[in-house]
Amino acid sequence: MRKPVVDEAVRYLAWDSQFFDKRVGVFDMRANKSLELALGLAVQKRYELIYIYSPFAIKETLISQYSLLDVGGHITFTKDISHHEVRKVKLASEISEYQRDDPTPELLRIALLSGHLSRFKIDFLLPIGSFERLYETWLAKTLGNRPNAAIYTYQADGRIAGFITAEWNNSKCTIGLLAVLESYQGQGIGARLIKHVEDACMANKVISIEVKTQLSNASARALYLKNFFAEQDRSFLYHAHIVEQSEQ
Ligand SMILES: CC(C)(COP(=O)(O)OP(=O)(O)OC[C@H]1O[C@@H](n2cnc3c(N)ncnc32)[C@H](O)[C@@H]1OP(=O)(O)O)[C@@H](O)C(=O)NCCC(=O)NCCS
Q1: Beta carbons of 117 and 75 less than 8 angstroms apart
Q2: Mean pLDDT score, 189-199
């Protein structure tokens, strides 16, 4: 098989480039070793932002003409549900599928909470408001992708106390966003929302569920492990921003 040439090592990301209105790419150090060489070539290709996945921590904060920000790492969990049996238990009556076509301010607020450790919130070099715009876009995308996607909310005291988003693609389900309001945390709501998605998966003949979170998100990691998800992959994650050249 042909080896990737170095200048192909940074892969162009069309959606992200359009969203941020800058040339965005991704570089995976697990498949390519020479970061310095790749970033040197990325300058010539006018990349302005590069997501770098790495199996080890990178100490340098300036490489080639890029400034590197540590944005908290990345961890993927999966759960095999191919042997699960359809539960006969009654579904939690507090949980229901969100029916509207647009996200309400209440839903948007809790969606932003789900991203409190998001790399797009941590990265202060992104344009102001990027994080909020991104989460709003993801909610809208999920709502527009029904019936292959769903948002489930947990109602308590007349408001949304928790929510989860899920997307089905053939036999795989991906959990996108999950959050429980601070004052309702630690009461088993997160676990019940996950179980609700698992039950919906059984109806959709799904055999595995995947969810990604930040390495730094101790409560989410503990929640997934407690609910029998297994760690699949982890990496350090950096955002490399091109350093503006001052006019000579
Ligand atoms: C992660 C989150 C959804 C958990 O929801 P929750 O309703 O509090 O979770 P549960 O009460 O169902 O907890 C189930 C298990 O998760 C783990 N857990 C939950 N919160 C935890 C915390 N703060 N610290 C350590 N473990 C935690 C525990 O193992 C817990 O079981 P236990 O209570 O028997 O010890 C919630 O903390 C949250 O919304 N955080 C902010 C948003 C976020 O980080 N979302 C995840 C994005 S991927």
Answers
A1: no
A2: 94
Substitution site in 185, 193, 194, 211 for ligand 1 pocket (most atoms within 8 Å of beta carbon): 185
The reply to whether ligand 1 has any atom less than 6 angstroms from the CB of 217 is yes
Pick from 74, 33, 34: which is nearest to 51 by CA? 74
Let me know whether 105 and 223 are in one domain: yes
> How do residues 43-99 score in pLDDT, each as one tens digit?
999 999 999 999 999 999 999 999 999 999 999 999 998 877 666 555 568 999 999
46 and 126 in a single domain? The answer is: no
Q: Which domain holds residue 11?
A: 6-70
Ligand 1 atom showing the smallest separation from residue 211 Cα = 48
In the block, residue with structure tokens 């970033």: 39
Q: Within this chain, do residues 170 and 80 fall inside the same structural domain, yes or no?
A: yes
For the stretch 114-145, pLDDT in tens is: 999 999 999 999 999 999 999 999 999 999 98
> Mean per-residue pLDDT for 169-173?
91
Q: How far apart are CA 46 and CA 61, in angstroms?
A: 19
**pLDDT tops 90 at residue 158:** yes
Domain count, the chain: 2
Q: Report which ligand 1 atom has the smallest distance to the Cα of 194.
A: 12
CA 58 – ligand 1 centroid, Å = 29
Is 186 part of a structural domain of the chain?
yes
Per the domain annotation, does 245 fall within a domain?
Answer: no
153 domain residue, yes or no? yes
For ligand 1, the distance from its centroid to the CA atom of residue 239, given in whole angstroms, is: 27
Residue nearest to atom 16 of ligand 1 (CA): 223
Facing residues of 174 across strands?
167, 210
Chain Cα centroid distance, residue 4: 27
